[in-house]
Amino acid sequence: MAIYFSAVAQGILWSIMGLGLYISFRILRFADLTSEASFTMGAATAATLATNGVHPIIATLAAIGAGMIAGLITGFLTTYFEIPALLASIITLTALYSINLRIMGNPNLSFRGTDTLFDLMRNFLNESLYARIAVGLIFVIICILIMVFFFKTDIGQAVIATGDNEIMANSLGINTPQMIRVALMFANGLIALSGALVAQDNGFSDIQMGSGTVVVAMSSIVIGEVLLKNELTLAKRLVSIILGAIIYRVILVFVLRLGFNSNDFRLISATVLALFLAFPSVKAKLSPKTNTVGNKGGRR
To answer: What is its main location (predicted)?
Structure first.
């Protein structure tokens, strides 16, 4: 049973990346692959600073700043130089691989002998698992409150308008290029925070840890949307992402405990995402056809 509670703790930490990806993919409607690099950058920055004696809270905040810079780079490429969004993010993703290597100095970096946020929490909660969950919940609650507040502001509403219809938003006097950059900075800052927390929880940062993370984050969003498909407030929708991330991790643990090879982890991850994406369509096709005519007599 402990392994499932551990999956819940991991799901909470990964859900923060889902929150970040929700901003870029759902609100801004921007195909941003920078997230894989900014996730690693958050982990690399936190690990490097922490192992050099920086307080883990400061190291984590610095990781957020590093992720925001990554998002800003993609934003500049696509708004100033008019490089297509997907290509701009791929360029940033490729460049940041080398930068992350330089930050760590090695392909991986251990937190061994270094205090992390989880170690600090263990001073209040003796149980390691409770400390992991507590740290995750604290950051998740803070992130949701900040996001709800931000998207109620004029800038937040301008970001939403830009994502809904950039041409219309521009005609209303909204500086859409600036809104794109702001949203990408916000999104990648959250993603880098997730990377920093996951690295501290795992006890190490690795240059490959961001690979395939988009699937994990999208799974959190999609599962939450499938389970809570009715119209929701922003706060409830963000909470659904947290629940989606937890459910996703629990499903993976359950499948792996059935005897599947751990090398098939990514295959299983992609399959789970595909199933939840296909679920609404399959359900619609299997449901009885509704009679749209109304009655045989037609109009009276």
So the answer is: membrane
